[in-house]
Amino acid sequence: MCSQNRDFHVFLFPFMAHGHMIPVSDMAKLFAAQGVKTTIITTPLNAPTFSKATRSSKTNSGGIEIEIKTIKFPSQEAGLPEGCENLDSLPPTPVLADSFFKAAGLLQEPLERLLLEDQPTCLVADMFFPWATDAAAKFGIPRLVFHGTSFFALAASDCVRRYEPFKNISSDSEPFVIPDLPGEIKMTRAQVPGFIKDNIENDLTRLLKQSKEAEVRSYGIVVNSFYELEPVYADYYRKVLGKKAWHIGPLSLCNRENEEKAYRGKEASIDEHECLKWLDSKKPNSVVYVCFGSVAKFNNSQLKEIAIGLEASGVDFIWVVRKGKDDDDVGKEDWLPEGFEEMMEGKGLIIRGWAPQVLILDHGAVGGFVTHCGWNSTLEGIAAGLPMVTWPVSAEQFYNEKLVTQVLKIGVGVGTQKWIRVVGDSVKNEAIEKAVTQIMVGEEAEKMRSRAKGLAEQARRAIETGGSSHSDLNALIEELMSSHS
Ligand code: UDP
According to the UniProt entry, where is the signal peptide (predicted)? Predict the structure, then answer.
């Protein structure tokens, strides 16, 4: 820890969704561990998520307390039900999501008040707050952007947006190579995010356009990745696209103790000791972990296909289902085949709600991960050295899938073909069984696991003193300090 960093004060302002809040919570611990004064800005109902996570950080904060400041979330002004302060807590309708983004757009003034009061050295604000660049500029404060995704996805989406390769093909399913992007990466028009290929103008596309413009005027971006994972794409992003970026991940690795790993995000729906006990009873690399992040939802028939596929694979599993017993659309739990849980007793564990994901991924009994390819999950899987079944749904998840399957070669696709904003494309149980078997059993699985373990080792080295991510974080702090003084 560097004592002169105490003059440095970073404001972190994450978007109100767990996929954005969790890495920023880790980022706060990372800055604090460098002796930097660190403040997280959020809304009242989201504050406990941060206080719980940062309080559990005994090992890494270097004695620096992370402060949490709240600003009121204007739910009512935006026509949202009272108490809706997190995107994950909304029913999955585009209308409500649009209102949520509208409410988030009203946070500029309260943020400016805090910037005026505290005069921090810099502001790291989420890409969904494009106006944060101007807000910071009013007070002469540099603004950094946090997208929460990989260099690969940033570069690939830039190329797809720029060259529009999906326009020159005859069908949704015909593969094209992403122009200019190194590595001959293939995808299809159906997998390109709807808001890019459909060329529609709505609130979300306007917001994303503003976000791009604000990014150009910002100081740079911070990326939750490590150089050795995607050197070609980190170089491409910086040198060819000319963007200023610092890689400081994998952020999840700042959680070293079980308690820290268990307290990320929402409160877990299973006692962490019970979960570890279950895993302790299993052989190394024998369990597949299945989880689709904090937003994606599947309908009952898809859940049933997953259940049948998992059973048929014969592999032990932990499966996280974002439906509780009391959820409206669950009815009589008819998303599970009759008697499934009893039949799977001891072989499969279903967690309804929220799992302590990193704690599970890091356990030696876990040997593979079925993921929706949200970047946090993907990188957590890599940091745990796991081969993956890729099951992208929306956002930039299809790009992350290509990184895992085509570049890193540590995963196999389950076969989803279509980008869908909320509820995923449908996949049959045979495809699930096949993909799970491919990453868990046999020579090819071992090869993938061994490559993944190599990456996990590099990830660990990247965050140690002198490692690439550690050095980049310090370079960023030093650069901002010298331009500040
Ligand atoms: N997560 C978790 N338990 C769950 C579901 C998700 O801890 O039951 C965490 C996961 O470890 C990751 C984040 O939530 O850090 C999800 O982020 P990601 O980018 O993977 O997906 P998103 O939720 O944004 O789609």
Answer: none
